[in-house]
Write a structure and sequence with these properties.
A hairpin with a 2-residue loop joins strand 5 and strand 6. A seven-stranded mixed β-barrel has the order 3-8-7-11-10-9-13. A three-stranded antiparallel beta sheet has the order 6-5-12, with no helix packed on it. The protein has helices spanning about 80-90, 145-150, 150-155, and strands spanning about 10, 15, 30-40, 45-50, 50-55, 55-60, 75-80, 105, 120, 125-130, 170-175, 175-180, 185-190. Helix content is about 10%, strand content about 35%. The protein has three helices and 13 strands. It has about 190 residues and is mainly β. Mean pLDDT is about 85; it is low at about 1-30.
């Protein structure tokens, strides 16, 4: 990739920037990648220890319906572990990877994320392109799960909804790179 390696790692419970201490930026929205998920299509996706993010998504990841999922504007799906836990506590049989996400994060506050923000995950730079509209595939976890993670406010782009980001965020890959379990994921730029 050349240049300064901007990969972050979480070690011993403390966050540490490697080769770029200013990477976290002034926004303070930082977390870790707790799971990287891939599949041959459909849900759930299963954990792998690391991956390469490319402009078309994770190397080796596939989509059951490529005409609907994937592509450069929907290359990576990011969902917070906190959202998954919220659904689990409400009785949905979900777990990291169950919702089809590629990156499961902890500490990255879904309520603070906005379309257009750029986030660094390991060596890769991503841009949030849209809130994921949940499809019928998720019904295997219960017929009401889609309403639990997405509502009219979210569809209208209103981050004040209590469901904002529950379904995850699609991201474009601006700079390809490796992502590993326990890498830092941090907001590095917001929309003006």
């Amino acid at each position: 990739m050349g240049g300064v390696v901007s990969r972050l790692r979480a070690e011993d419970g403390r966050y540490r920037a490697l080769n770029n201490p200013g990477l976290q930026g002034p926004h303070g929205t930082t977390g870790i990648v707790v799971q990287i998920n891939t599949s041959f299509g459909g849900v759930p996706k299963y954990p792998i220890p690391e991956c390469i993010l490319t402009p078309l998504g994770l190397e080796g990841d596939h989509h059951a319906h490529p005409q609907l999922h994937g592509g450069p504007r929907q290359a990576v799906l990011v969902i917070s572990a906190e959202a998954i836990e919220e659904l689990h506590f409400k009785g949905y049989p979900v777990f990291p990877g169950a919702l089809g996400e590629n990156l499961t994060t902890r500490g990255l506050d879904r309520r603070q994320l906005r379309i257009g923000m750029q986030i660094r995950a390991g060596e890769a730079l991503l841009e949030i392109t849209k809130v994921r509209t949940p499809c019928g595939t998720l019904n295997i976890y219960g017929p009401a799960i889609r309403q639990e993670v997405y509502d009219k406010q979210v569809r209208a782009g209103d981050p004040r909804s209590v469901r904002w980001g529950m379904s995850g965020f699609y991201c474009a890959v601006l700079e390809p790179g490796r992502v590993r379990f326990n890498d830092i994921i941090a907001v590095v730029a917001t929309v003006a």
